[in-house]
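Recall from the previous chapter that SMILES is a line notation for molecules. Here it describes flavin-adenine dinucleotide.
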Amino acid sequence: MATSATPPSSVLIIGAGPGGLCLALSLSLLPQHIPCTVYDLHPSTPSIGGAVALTPSSLRILDRLGVYERIKHRGFQYRALRFATSKGGTIGDCIFGTEQYPALRISRTILLQALHDVAAEQGIHVQWGKKALSLQETEEHATVTFEDGTSATGDMVVGFDGVHSRVRAHVVRSALSAKSTSNPDAYAAQFAGLAGVQFLTPLPLIRFPPPPGHAEGTPPPLPMLILAQEGSFLLFPSDPEGQEVACFSVWNTEVDLGREGWERWGREEAVRWVRELHKGWPEPVKSALESLDPSQVHVWPAYSVPPLPAWHSPRVIIAGDAAHAFSPKGGQGAGQALEDAALLSRSLFLVSPQYPLAQALRVWEARRRERVKFVLDWASRADRGRREGKSGWVQQKIKEYVLWAVFALKGEGATRALIGYDTELVDLGA
Ligand SMILES: Cc1cc2nc3c(=O)[nH]c(=O)nc-3n(C[C@H](O)[C@H](O)[C@H](O)COP(=O)(O)OP(=O)(O)OC[C@H]3O[C@@H](n4cnc5c(N)ncnc54)[C@H](O)[C@@H]3O)c2cc1C
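With both inputs in hand, we obtain:
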């Protein structure tokens, strides 16, 4: 029987994304081994989505789970993101990797497949084609009902079910009914007014401007973020040899095309828009756009989740994008989901008569809110220069100078707290 003074003996995880699979693996590898089942609405491992950038704080977690070795040579490893001016000048290098864990940009599909393979070896099988619709909980259990009419009951339910989470509504309703009468619908995901537009281009098709004193351009170290008065353009390889470059721009648009609309018209609109925005930009953007193959364009509409009154009820938790969705500009979404999962497994393992479940969940939520706020603040500071739209010449020079000063004066210190975070070292007060 489930009690609040012992670790749960069965956990139901909704969502087989990076967060859900990482939690399943973390629970199965604990000394105490907490059995779990993962459910996902897809019929099988989804093969959609672009690449995600992972920094040492998440690679460390994947290493402990035995996943890192399988993926580290399957994506693009890098130490720093170069900030450059539109004329080809270097502003500075923002350090994202360490010697032990170079940062890794990797296809979301490869990451998910590796997590899934290791999970299967641990005896964790995802139940595909199971769309969670609603939840009920008692003091001791939580029950999920699926679209196919079946249901499952466990000691706990964890919703790693992404930005359009179903589990979130249950947690919010539970928090609000305990507190006030605010409207739970106010906490649904909202379109953030922008979409990431990405297309793949072979490196040899991109021409780089020659450095001063040289006749020909050679590729500078990638990834590279080009900052211009009109906006920004990111060049980011995602294959091990760095020969296939993802070109990334952020499309500011008030109109949410809706889920179907993004798939049907989003790509065409995005191609038109990206060509228009970057028209007249010098190399390397010029040649990258010339090589644009519309069939290689991927559009990722960004939704944000308003600050929630709670991330958990007594026996139901939300985490990852379900609790805190990130803008595509921050590039931290997958990493934060992995951190949520790794810390949650530690918290559940520690439950005891002296450290009851309610306390473990309260501390987990507080620690993760603190960390997510730090990462969001960091991402929005780093992104300020890109967000403000077209800037004047003087304003642009000031932005470049401020960034140069941060990289030159702080060096590795500029990102130490971001990439040095270790879930194993977080004080849980147990
Ligand atoms: C299609 C896609 C493409 C992305 N592309 C990029 C990218 O290019 N770059 C980048 O940095 N980040 C990208 N992201 C975002 C990044 O991957 C997320 O921040 C990160 O994956 C969050 O992990 P998560 O486990 O919390 O949620 P998700 O990865 O969103 O996973 C949620 C899972 O829950 C399942 N699910 C949802 N609702 C239900 C339900 N009711 N019942 C059962 N299962 C359900 C979904 O099928 C999905 O598998 C993408 C996300 C998605 C979904």
